Every structure is written in C-alpha cells, then in structure tokens.
Amino acid sequence: MSAEALSVRALTKVFRVADAKGRRAEFTAVNDVSFALEPAGSLGIVGESGSGKTTVARMLVGLEPATSGTMTVLGQDRSQPARKAADRRERARQMQVVFQDPYTSLDPSQTIGSAVEEVLRAHSALTGPARTARLTDLMDQVGLDTRQTAARPRELSGGQRQRAAIARALAADPKVLILDEAVSALDVSIQAQVLNLLSDIRAATGIAYVLISHDLAVVRQLCDTVLVMRKGEIVERGDCANVLDHPEQEYTRVLRASVPVAGWKPLTSARQAEPS
Amino acid sequence: MTATLPAGPETVPTGPARGRAGTRAGALGRRARALYSFLGPSGTIAAAVLAAMLILAVGAGLFAPYDPNQASLLDAYQGPSMAHLLGTDAIGRDVLSRLIYGSRTSLLGPALVIACSTAVGVPLALIGAWYGGLVDAGAARILDLVYALPGLLLAVITAAMFGPGLTPAVVALSIAYVPFLSRVVRAAARQQRVSPYVDALTVQGFGPWRIGARHILRNIAPMVLGQSAVAFGYALLDLAGLSYLGLAVQAPTADWGVMVSDQDSMLRGHLLPVLVPGLLVVVCVMALTVLGARIAGERPERHPLWNRRGKRAGAE
Question: Mapped to the 3 state alphabet, what secondary structure does B82-108 carry?
Fold first, then answer.
C-alpha cells in the first residue's frame, strides 16, 4: 500500500482526431505525466488553455480512458475503467470533482438539497434523521441556508451554485477532491470566499486537493506544490511559492507575466517578464 | 438496480422540510394560477377542450341520452330537435350519443398508439444519446427506414395481411410513430448527455440507467410530453382516416372516423351526422397540437408538474 493519496505515473492521452485534410491523425493531449500527492496535500496544476490539465483531471475521475500510464488513488489502481457498479461507487468515495461551470454542473430540475441527498443516499449508510442531519451539516459547511437548500440551481447565484457543487462532492466523503477550474467562472470577491471555504474544509477534514487552474493567484492561495504544464507535458514543478516567485522555465515566467496587475502592459517578449 | 448500497427504511421525510403554508384551498388556487401562467390562454383553452372530451368519453354512459347503436328506422334523418339535439342518422341512431360513445374508440386508439411508440421510442432515443457512436448511428438508420414508410401505408399493408380492425391499425401506427418521437427525444437527450451535470453524476458513481431515467428523462420530460401530444393528434387523424376507409374500427361501432364515412347521409344532403364528427377530429388535433407545443416550449425546471413551490429563493 502506498502512503500517497494520489499517484500518477507516465500518464498519456492520445486523441484520435481528423487533420486539416480530414485524414485520421493523432493528438497527444497529455504526454508522460507523473506526479504524486500526499494525504491532505494540495497540488496545483497550471498551464495555458489546451495544455492538457483538464484532460488529466478527466482521466483521474474516469470520464476519459487513459491511453497509457497508471493512476493510483489511496493505493488502489484505477488505470482501467470501472466495470462493476460497486467499483464505480467505491471510486466515487475516494475521489470527487468540482467542475468549472456551476451553471451546468447541477441538474437544473433538481433542488440543491435533493442533489446532495441523492449522493448521501448512495454513499453513506446514514438513514432517516441521521442523513438529514448530515445534509444540514454539509450545507452549513458550504454556507447555504435552508431556503437555498430547497432551491433549484436556476434560483441561485454562481457562487451559491459552486458551493452547492462543492457540497455535493463532499457528500461522498472523498479523500481527494479535484477542483477543475472550480473558481474560474466566479467573480473575484466570490472567488475569495470560495477559496477561503476550501481552505477551511481542508483544515477541518484533511482532504487532499488537486486544483487545476490557469489563475496563478488562486493556485498560490490554496496550494503547497505546483506543476506547470505545457502542450501536455510537465515543464516545471516544485514548491508553490518557489516556482511562482522564482520560475526556472521561460514558460512559467511568461505565464506569470501574463497576470494583469496595476501598471501591467501586455507582454510582447519574454524580456519584459522581469518581476517589477 | 439503482441502489447497490443498503438503503434504510424510508419512513422519515427526507430533504428540506417543505412548508405547506396556507389552507388547502389557497394552495389549490396557487396551483391553478401557476398552471394558467404556464399554459397561457390558448393552452388553457386547449387543455379545457381535451379535459371535456376525456370526461365525456369516460362518462359516456352518463352523458349520452340514447344507446349509440339503438336504431329506429322511423326516426331516420331527423334534424336537430329537443329529443335529438344533433338529429339522427340514416337508421335513426342519435348522432349526439354516437359522438359521445365514439369519443371512446376515437381517443383510445391514438392513446394506445402513443403509449406504445413512446415506450419503444424514448428508451431507444436515450440509449442512442447515451452511447453515441455506432449504437446511435445504427438506431438512427433503422429509424430512418421506418420513417421512410408512411404510417398510413403501413397500416393499409397490415390490414391487408391481418384483416381490418383496431388492433392491427394500432400496431402499425405504433411502429410508424416511433421515429417521430425518438428523433426529437434523441436530440434533446444528447444535449443533456454532454452537459457537465451528467459528468458529475457519473463521477458520483451513478450508472447510465439511473442517470438516464432519473435525471436526463426528467429534464426532457416536457419535451417528450409535448411531442407525444402532437403525435397523439396525428395518430387520431390517421386512425379516423383508417376507420373512414373501413380498415380500423368497423362500421356498427360508434367512432368518429366511421361516422364521417356515412356516405348515405352525405348523398341525401343530410350533413350533420358527417360534419360534426369531422369537426371534432379537427378540434381535438388542434387542441393537442397547441397544448403539445406549449408544453414542449417551456423549460423543464419551470414546469408546474414538478416545480411545486412556484416561488424563488433569494439569491446573494
């Protein structure tokens, strides 16, 4: 048994696509990616659009089969798709995901409460009042009141919906939570609230995070270690503050210099990427 | 097969407590108002017309003044009178009574057609939309083949093979209406399939059947219902046409299509026994089309069928 919460070795994803002339071609979205995450750790994966970060997340949670490589969560291999319903449920209890778009990641015709309860019903042995109590706890944890719990997604704001999505993910009591651009669709003040919420939850439950983001500030706030991906490969990795403050790779520097701050000018060459 | 974990006794009300505020009558009024605002004036009229038809069909014995098959040659070809509100036909049967009893076969036939074709077409559409690829393409080609055969032609062939009657006609039309339902439902289900909430449910460990039946179907239900209503209208028209041709419901039985085919009355310039059932068919088809379009056009989460609260929670 490995002590790691999550371990990925030589993960590769090749998509079959059609090239400009309509012939069959191959596109390597993720190439030989390896990383590990200790329990209660927090790993950021950054990179530009199309760098393969989301594909890594989708493979981890089983939405996309890996072309090659191994993935191990809590010491259990999940390189192959789950065949049996019981396996699916067990994997669901190990690792959960929060998606980018809170407007579409909740069933529009289901109330927040029943969405979370459906998960509790499937994954916990709780029944009756105990389950209702757990539901109330979860909603408290993410800061949604009873009225919002009884509401449908349409009736809530983006931030509230993302809290609901987090509550639903936590309802399975996972040990690893993947946050796939989970705060990117929110405005800055709500983003800060949700990030604080995530920090608090991690402190309280000892859950491990994989935060996928193009926003370096978000990664800095939530993560201990960081991977920088480009064109499907890891170009830099290490301690979060270290990598982001003293990037060794040109690409990381460019990524860093692309964050607009006061007095920022759009980058035209890497020379201008000096920290101000 | 939906739950692999032991689910406990479900005696305790789960989920957030839904306050049943107000009196029963007040709640009923609110439901009625919600329904009206959902259906709009035209939809409400259509629904009322259909409800009236349904009540007449179910309670035919109560509403019809005479036995629909009671012939009385002495009373043949009477105009409207207090005794016979819509007059009598060639052998003196009361037209109103035959219309009322006729609504039973005229509505039951298409109801069976739609029930069968929905039961086949919707699962087919869901399976195609879920798995995509070859499964989807295969199902689509088969449906295209069926779609290429006009329903009426299929029914005529069936009647030629198995003899005329309501059952062969219903079976033929059921097959013919599968693509009509399945295609539209597939497109809507496909849209749901690729939406992130389905991914989220998959990651939660829920299987395709559960997600399909409990989530996707629920979200496309108004569309299925709307399409079914429109199809019901068409099936009603088709069956009336087949009965008119003598291929579905057979002559002595009271049926709108059979009544329209009463040529003797027409030739004698006696139009009421023929025009009124024809008019009823037209009214029914129109009402179903209006209602169907209205139901299908609405967003599922606004649907009064499952949005029982009808009020909003405050947003930040």
Answer: CCCCCCECCCCCEHHHHHHHHHHHHHH
Pick the closest to residue A3 from A208, A230, A275, A257 (CA basis). A208
Task: Kindly give, in sequence order, each residue whose CB lies less than 8 Å from that of residue B273, ignoring residues fewer than 6 positions away.
Answer: B86, B87, B88, B89, B90, B95, B98, B259, B262, B265
| Domains of chain A, residue spans | 6-245
Residues of B in contact with A126 (CB under 8 A): 8
Q: Residue B13 is encoded by which pair of tokens?
A: 């009300």
Q: Which of B42, B37, B36 is nearest to B292 (CA)?
A: B42
Contact between A96 and B203 using a beta-carbon 8 Å cutoff: yes
pLDDT tens digit string along A156-174? 998 899 999 999 999 999 9
Residues whose CB falls within 8 Å of the CB of residue B52, separated by 6 or more in sequence, listed in order: none
- The whole model's pTM is what? 0.79
Half-sphere exposure of A167 (CA within 13 A, CB side): 29
Q: Does the beta-carbon distance from A111 to B15 stay under 8 Å? A: yes
- Residue A134 contacts B, CB cutoff 8 Å: no
Per-residue tokens: B89: 């036909």
Question: So what's the ipTM on this one?
Answer: 0.87
CATH homologous superfamily for the domain B38-56+87-302: MetI-like (1.10.3720.10)
Q: Work out the percent of chain A whose per-residue pLDDT is above 90.
A: 54
Instruction: Please indicate whether, in this complex, the C-beta atoms of A107 and B219 are within 8 angstroms of each other.
Output: yes
Overall fold of domain A6-245? Rossmann fold (3.40.50)
Alpha-carbon separation of residue A222 from A151, A210, A240, B290 (angstroms) = 29, 10, 9, 54
